[in-house]
Please model this.
Amino acid sequence: MIVALAGGVGGGRMAAGLSRVLPPRGLAVIVNTGDDFEHLGLHLSPDLDSVLYTMAGVADARRGWGRAGESWNFMSAIGELGGAAWFRLGDRDLALHVLRTHLLGRGLPLSEVTRRIGARLGVRHAVLPMAETPVRTRVRTARGVLDFQDYFVRRQCRPRARGFHFAGSRAARVPRGVRRLLVPGRTRAVVICPSNPYVSIAPILSVPALRDWMARRAFPVVAVSPIVGGAAVKGPAAKIMRELGEEPSAAGLARHYGPLVDGWVVDRRDAAHARAIAREGHAVVVTDTVMDGARKAEVLARTVVAFARSLTRSG
Amino acid sequence: MIVALAGGVGGGRMAAGLSRVLPPRGLAVIVNTGDDFEHLGLHLSPDLDSVLYTMAGVADARRGWGRAGESWNFMSAIGELGGAAWFRLGDRDLALHVLRTHLLGRGLPLSEVTRRIGARLGVRHAVLPMAETPVRTRVRTARGVLDFQDYFVRRQCRPRARGFHFAGSRAARVPRGVRRLLVPGRTRAVVICPSNPYVSIAPILSVPALRDWMARRAFPVVAVSPIVGGAAVKGPAAKIMRELGEEPSAAGLARHYGPLVDGWVVDRRDAAHARAIAREGHAVVVTDTVMDGARKAEVLARTVVAFARSLTRSG
Model:
């Protein structure tokens, strides 16, 4: 069993690629829920949606979020009625939010709601929220502590980030499907998808059971760098790295994760960084990492899986 | 102040007509909420919506419910995800349901939610739910007791009706805006819109405060017959009248309401019924009552208002 840690666009694409090269029983994707929030009374889980939609092949590739072939009549009517319109919800996408909110309201755990929706979308691999209970990413900025979506969508990451906090993570209840992966010997390798290290991967690792599992591991951890040529493929990762005094590069990212990652997958454009990472004792694979298209994601996934299988943890 | 009792398509059209001939402070519409229900976790108020949309001029006239220029992508995605799809919700319409549910969840009373939404839609006259608290119409049928929308939409009124019950009406809390209308001397006349007597008007009159107000009234009550030429203009009123052993005609309707109505407005096609109603001591006006178009609704409203003003209650 290979376990992917994922959030956002890069996470969805990597997870979709892995799902094309691994059988349903050979892959589980643990997804960040730190972005989740309540909006207009609806429970939104943007990262779960990105991963589900991308794995199901219904994501809008150009926009990077939501569904392909989307329409926006709900949004126009919400604006007309004076409802909050800063977070855009497509008409098709809304069905997922309404249904999830409805099922959660009936007492189903988030993991079961995700399983049902995934099954209806034709996703055959396990997609698991990192927690059943709310964990909420908060951003410390020069303008005070902001809720994640306020920072990320409403303010478009403009405020300078000083740090991140994951409210609720200490007491987070981990889904049964995730707990099963934590049993020693169950997981053969972990893939950290090319997701934002601060707001996609850090919330997952802030959950004590997951952090401990990674710290005590006997399996290799492979990470795909979301930083290519000094910039994030998508999103604010590079900007945040700079703001927090880290070098926005594959090598900076390797230093950020330190011994948590055994093997790095780095883009060809970052060959110099790859050598620096290798000098620090990590295994490195250099390849094309930008997944513009399902085919490229699949090719990258094959490389990542082969790399993970080739590594045996020395520690 | 003229007070209209309304529900459904006919109620919405009559209310819209009245709003074109009476100033904002001269008309209040009390709307049936017995059709309200929870669906996919959303609070739906179909009659409030019909009245608001029609008064705002955004209703779909042909379909008879929902908004004009509607799209259905939410419905197609809900079906795909395995959610209940028997009650159709348009993409624009959904904004109202989501917003109402959200505001109710934040603790606002239904009347205040309705006022805010009406104001955003440009409705300047008071549109008031008959109750703040849930009143739910249940239908006794040969197939047992059915929730209203199960009977009305899912089963399309096919089961034979044996009677109606309005759960929650005895303990219903009446909105402040309605209570103000009940103060003696405040209401000059009541107009019973051409709405279904069993499922639109009866629930309103099942609320004790409203029933008592009507029983002890010093103002005239004028009703517009929803039965024209032996059939309902829209909906199952005639079918239900037959099932309950009443004559599906304007005269049968006058017997149904008895002394609750002082003056009847009857369609030209029902002149014979008009004479029968007059013989039983009611005032009657014969005119065109079918409101196919806003202009016709306005003409009818003028007639209804003049008729109401001409009546002085004798009892």
User: Anything to note?
Assistant: The radius of gyration of chain A is 19 Å. Chain A touches chain B through 32 residues (CB under 8 Å). Residues 2-310 of chain A form a domain with the Rossmann fold fold (CATH 3.40.50.10680).
